[in-house]
Design goal:
- Pfam families: HATPase_c_2 (PF13581).
- It is a single chain.
- By secondary structure, this protein is α+β, with helices and mostly antiparallel strands.
- It has 3 helices and 5 strands; from the N terminus they run βααββαββ.
- It has a single domain, classed as Histidine kinase-like ATPase, C-terminal domain (Heat Shock Protein 90, 2-Layer Sandwich), CATH 3.30.565.
């Protein structure tokens, strides 16, 4: 299977920042990875990493906040970015077990917090096909 044209390959989701919505994001991640010709193990790794990203952000989210997710396909992998409005401006804990899991499952991991009263907080991961 060939990778689709990256200009049209992005998949975006916007849903309530609630743990009940994790199955939706996990399902979309698996579908996107299958379409990008990832192996079964790579699909599982991406699905677990996406679950961890979203779980971490949901715990940091302000009440009623939305979770914005974007899958971007490129020539050799998938970049996933999720963001939400932070309850208190704290960044994701990079010394946690969950962060260690992310660094194990994904080829690249990054996080950040914007500015403001309820600043946006985001996590970005990248999974390379064949890695």
């Amino acid at each position: 299977m060939s990778v689709p044209d990256t200009a049209q390959a992005d998949v975006e989701l916007r849903l309530r920042a609630d743990l009940a919505n994790l199955p939706v994001v996990r399902g979309v991640s698996a579908t996107v990875a299958m379409g990008a010709d990832f192996t079964v193990d790579e699909i599982d790794d991406l699905r677990l990493a996406v679950d961890e990203v979203c779980s971490q952000l949901i715990t940091l989210a302000a009440p009623g906040a939305l979770l914005d997710c974007r899958f971007h396909l490129d020539a050799d992998g998938i970049r996933f970015r999720a963001s939400t409005r932070s309850r208190d401006g704290r960044p994701p804990a990079t010394d946690s077990f969950g962060w260690h899991v992310l660094r194990t499952l994904a080829d690249e991991v990054d996080a950040g917090v914007g500015e403001g009263v309820r600043p946006p907080v985001h996590i970005v991961i990248r999974k390379v096909r064949g890695h």
